[in-house]
Amino acid sequence: MPLLYASCVKRQPFSAMHASGESLAQEQNYENAILALNSLQSNFSVLQASVLRKHKDDCKHINDTIKYLDRVGLTLQRLDTLPAIHVSGTKGKGSTCAMVESILRSNGYRTGFFSSPHLVSVTERVRLNGIPVATDTFSGHFWKIYNQLLALREHNQDMPSYFCFLTILAFDIFLREAVDVCIVEVGIGGRFDCTNVLRRTSTVGITSLGLEHTKLLGNSLKDIAWQKAGIVKPGSDVYTVPQLPQCIDVIEQECHRSKANLHIVPSDLRGYCWAKKPSQMEDMCSIVEMNTSLAIHIATSWIRKAQKVAQISGPLVVTKQTVEGIDDCFWPGRFQRISYDSGKTLFLDGAHTVESIEVCARWFNDKSKRDHKRILIFNTTGDRDALKLLSTLLSTVKFDAAFFVPNVAVSGAMRADAINHNFPFEQQMQRCRENRTCWDEYMQSKNGFVHESVDSVFAQIDKQFSSVLADSDILITGSVHLIGAVLTALKLERYTYTSPT
């Protein structure tokens, strides 16, 4: 049965849930693990307050993570034994990490992968050999860590944040499972991110950079680059794609300061020596091609170090096993297509920056069919500029209708895995109404609609836009969390870990 949690329930500390006489041991299952985990989220007002004092708290995430790691017996010295690849960036860091993981697994290595956010289940964030950890594995590690931290806290608020807790849990699982290598995706930024407690990462990746999370990371590309380059470690090999001059200058300075080796990889795949060509190579859009190029170099560098083979200059030889890893890579919610119901094709892409929305719009315009109805389902949260995102979409694609909806799958209830106290429902609804106003003004039409849940959106699509004469291509974008809500509402959760093709 799906794990449901009423969306109107007021958040409270999980310790308050034990007021009944039930044994704590009987309650230590996956469902209650997720409720306990959700109690570690910051609500919207706390998050806003933290933004205002961010400069005072820059190192807090790192210091707190070290403190809590030590409390559960994961010292930095022990963490140093974890073979890790660390990746930051603005665009495509999740998909690049997924490609690196798939390549390493195809080459025979046992992998761990920590990423965020999840689409449907929290377990997606911690993967072993490409598969989300089982719920019993997750809950076993969760309760061991949670109970230790609860017992050792010095005051009621002395617990890690949601993301910090999951970072600790992932490291604990990877160490206990003795993976050959783990691929760790930065949460936000890099320099002060919880994941940056890693001190011995010899291979580092930085994907394409752009403006994002400006209230937290800074208002200029130089600020963003300084944050992202903060994961560079002394003597590490740092791989990045061609960047804007102000970004590459900052990365070069950080590498020089850390005596790290900077490698700028080709932005396309034409110059490689292929054992065989990837099956989808001709159909890759430019950003996917660039991320694939970066992933090849990151993975190949790590393999050579593991095998104690010297790095070589000249054109890179891409082995058959590496190509198989590229072909087998599946990363849900990014340039993903799913045939659904009769005559509907879902186009899922979690783009949420102007640059990534631009690529998403070109992808949809190229892959959707001109004689189909083109429908947009959109939401955005946080400090994203919805007007810029929408105008970028509309400059490339002409839609027949648009639906603005919060990241809620079904009216009246929400999966516990999907609860996000950072962006409360009413705040999301207000944003949806504003987005519809932007749409109406830009389109000079009234074919924009606001709904309170995804199931309600599809009910209107079925009633108003579906017919035997016109198939529909439906683009869902603007928020990764929205994609999770769509997959949940349509009962397509299996496509978070298996490809529809």
Rg, rounded, reads: 22 Å
Main sheet attributes: strand count, strand direction, barrel closure: 8 strands, mixed
What is the level 1 CATH name of the largest domain?
A: Alpha Beta
Shape: globular
The largest beta-sheet arranges its strands as 5-4-3-6-2-7-8-9
Helix content: 40-55%
Low-confidence stretches: 1-23, 43-56
Q: Supply the helix-strand structural class.
A: alpha/beta
Describe this structure in words.
It is a single chain. The chain has helices spanning 24-27, 30-38, 44-52, 60-71, 76-79, 93-106, 135-152, 162-177, 214-217, 221-228, 245-257, 286-306, 320-328, 354-367, 386-394, 425-443, 454-465, 480-489, and strands at residues 4-5, 84-88, 111-114, 126-128, 131-132, 181-185, 203-206, 237-240, 261-264, 273-274, 317-318, 336-340, 344-349, 373-378, 401-404, 414-415, 448-450, 472-477. Mean pLDDT is 88; it is low at 1-23 and 43-56. α6 crosses α12 (286-306), α10 packs parallel to α11 and α14 (354-367) runs parallel beside α15 (386-394). β14, α15 and β15 form a beta-alpha-beta unit. It has 501 residues and is an alpha/beta fold. The protein folds into two domains: 30-328, 3-Layer(aba) Sandwich (UDP-N-acetylmuramoyl-L-alanine:D-glutamate ligase); 336-496, Protein-Tyrosine Phosphatase, Chain A (Alpha-Beta Complex), CATH 3.90.190.
